[in-house]
């Protein structure tokens, strides 16, 4: 593996981690403000998290080639 590929993979992982952290933090804030909407908020959080992880995995696979 070449150095630019390793740096790119690291940036992808860092970006995905920051994104998932922001999603979780925002969801917990929203649930604290409106506990009755917890189900809808959790569903949206899971969908967005899955899409973000899929994007990160796709970028890692494309970066490897």
From TrEMBL:
GO terms for cellular component: proton-transporting ATP synthase complex; proton-transporting two-sector ATPase complex, proton-transporting domain. It is a multi-pass membrane protein. It is found in: Membrane. InterPro entries: ATP_synth_F0_csu, ATP_synth_F0_csu_DDCD_BS, ATP_synth_F0_csu_sf, ATPase_proteolipid_c-like_dom, F/V-ATP_Csub_sf. The chain crosses the membrane at residues 6-23, 44-63. The keyword Plastid does not apply. SUPFAM superfamilies: F1F0 ATP synthase subunit C. One of its GO terms (biological process) is proton motive force-driven ATP synthesis. It comes from the Bacteria. Keywords: CF(0), Hydrogen ion transport, Ion transport, Lipid-binding, Membrane, Transmembrane, Transmembrane helix, Transport. GO terms for molecular function: lipid binding; proton transmembrane transporter activity. Residues 7-62 form the V-ATPase proteolipid subunit C-like domain. Belongs to the ATPase C chain family. This is ATP synthase F(0) sector subunit c. It comes from Myroides guanonis.
């Amino acid at each position: 593996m070449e150095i630019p590929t390793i740096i790119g993979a690291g940036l992808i992982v860092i970006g995905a981690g920051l994104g998932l952290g922001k999603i979780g933090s925002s969801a917990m804030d929203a649930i604290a403000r409106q506990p009755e909407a917890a189900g809808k908020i959790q569903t949206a959080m899971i969908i967005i998290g899955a899409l973000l992880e899929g994007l990160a995995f796709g970028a890692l696979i494309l970066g490897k080639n």
